């Protein structure tokens, strides 16, 4: 019934990431993007029976790992 939640969260997360990369250097984006991807990963784990939700889970975890690595390099 609620299998659409990870998809909507993923779209929101990607739009926030695109907004950051377009050049909108807003300070709240630096904290909002990891939180959005973390919630996306959590809801993808809850509703992981769907193949698309599993793909969203792996992408979300990959983006979080990449952001953490980049933050540690700076």
Keywords:
globular; 74 residues; single chain; mainly alpha; 0% strand; 82% helix
Which spans have pLDDT < 50 for at least 5 consecutive residues? none
Helix content: over 70%
Oligomeric nature of the chains: single chain
Shape: globular
* Count of DSSP-assigned helices: 3
End-to-end separation in angstroms reads 42 Å
Count of strand segments: 0
Radius of gyration, taken over Cα atoms and rounded to an integer in Å: 13 Å
Major sheet details: none
Mean pLDDT: 85
Beta strand %: under 5%
Instruction: Please state the structural category.
Output: mainly alpha
List the topology elements.
Layout: H1 5-22, H2 27-46, H3 51-73
Explain this structure to me?
The protein has 74 residues and is an all-alpha fold. Helix content is 82%, strand content 0%. The chain contains three helices and no strands. The chain has helices spanning 5-22, 27-46, 51-73. The termini are far apart. The mean pLDDT is 85.
Briefly, what is this?
The chain has 74 residues and is mainly α. Helices cover 82% and strands 0% of the residues. The chain has 3 helices and no strands.
């Amino acid at each position: 019934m609620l299998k659409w939640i990870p998809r909507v969260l993923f779209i929101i997360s990607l739009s926030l990431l695109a907004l950051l990369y377009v050049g909108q250097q807003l300070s709240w984006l630096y904290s909002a993007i990891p939180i959005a991807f973390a919630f996306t990963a959590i809801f993808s784990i809850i509703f992981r029976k769907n193949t698309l939700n599993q793909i969203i889970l792996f992408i979300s975890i990959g983006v979080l790992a990449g952001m953490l690595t980049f933050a540690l390099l700076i």
